[in-house]
């Protein structure tokens, strides 16, 4: 058996770990503050993600954007997140390798029983630190949606919400649409 060359330097443990996570033969796996977590969404969780994707669809086509789980990296940290939805310009999605949160237009996380606190606190803080311009948190336990904007060194400086499910949530430009949260 011949040795294969790897796309990382053996003396760089962060890159080696992130490379390994991307090549695990499983559904989805992420690293949160150094802990490896399998991501196993349930049907009710996936339904909310679907409803958001469907509402964003026409606008994304007009903007020339794609939405998916993507592979945002947070270099210099022990984190590799798999967001429920990330919106990126189509030309960025064609680029090889991972994207940085500041290259997205929107990141969406829908809480689950197993990761709600991570989405509410850790990911919100990290996405702001890495300058993701918009972070939409759909909190199924609290039955609310909150849109975070204008990332700064101490977190997001603008918070729209929490809004109870059933209240439309306005996504600012470039989206310029209101999300219907009635069925969340």
Which descriptors would you attach to this protein?
globular, two-stranded antiparallel ribbon, disordered N terminus, 6-stranded mixed β-sheet, tt1808, chain A, alpha+beta, 4 helices, 184 residues
CATH class bucket: Alpha Beta
CATH architecture: Alpha-Beta Complex
How many strand units?
A: 12
Strand content: 25-35%
List segments where confidence is low: pLDDT < 50 over at least 5 consecutive residues. 1-6
Q: What is the CATH topology classification name?
A: tt1808, chain A
Question: What general form does the structure show?
Answer: globular
- Characterize the main sheet: 6 strands, mixed
- Helix/strand structural class: alpha+beta
Structure description:
By secondary structure, the protein is of the alpha+beta class. It has a single domain, classed as tt1808, chain A (Alpha-Beta Complex). Helices cover 27% and strands 32% of the residues. The chain contains four helices and twelve strands, in the order H-E-E-H-E-E-E-E-H-E-H-E-E-E-E-E. A six-stranded mixed sheet has the order 3-6-7-8-9-10, sandwiched between helices. Strands 1-2 form a two-stranded antiparallel sheet. Strand 11 (169-171) and strand 12 (177-179) form a beta hairpin. The longest helix has 21 residues, at 43-63. It is globular. The relative contact order is 0.13.
